[in-house]
Amino acid sequence: xxxxxxxxxxxxxxxxxxxxxxxxxxxxxxxxxxxxxxxxxxxxxxxxxxxxxxxxxxxxxxxxxxxxxxxxxxxxxxxxxxxxxxxxxxxxxxxxxxxxxxxxxxxxxxxxxxxxxxxxxxxxxxxxxxxxxxxxxxxxxxxxx
Length: 145
Description:
Layout: H1 3-36, E1 38-52, E2 55-65, E3 71-79, E4 88-93, E5 102-103, H2 109-138
Antiparallel strand pairs: 1-2, 1-4, 2-3, 4-5
Helix pairs in contact: 1-2
């Protein structure tokens, strides 16, 4: 094999590793809500349009009382096509973590799918790395007759 081809393969392996780490972080954030998150009913205090990085968002401010009895006033920015919330909404939050609440349904499941895809990509890249290493040590595979 040509040295440029090997370098290109190693770059793909490195890219797969970086994608695995980044999407793993995002997926872990989602996993925390699934495992340790709690739901509560919140009272909407205000909704308004806002803009972030060239995107229009709907900001929903609300108050809720956590399971320890402490009152919180927080906000979640959702896509502008999100259904306009009523006077009461269900939220998810992480007990004991300040500003960790979000409207129920405002999850990032795409991050989980991207993580699973990067796992497949990393597995394929690992297989290719194994092939490169085997060829370097043992030489190219020989055909049996």
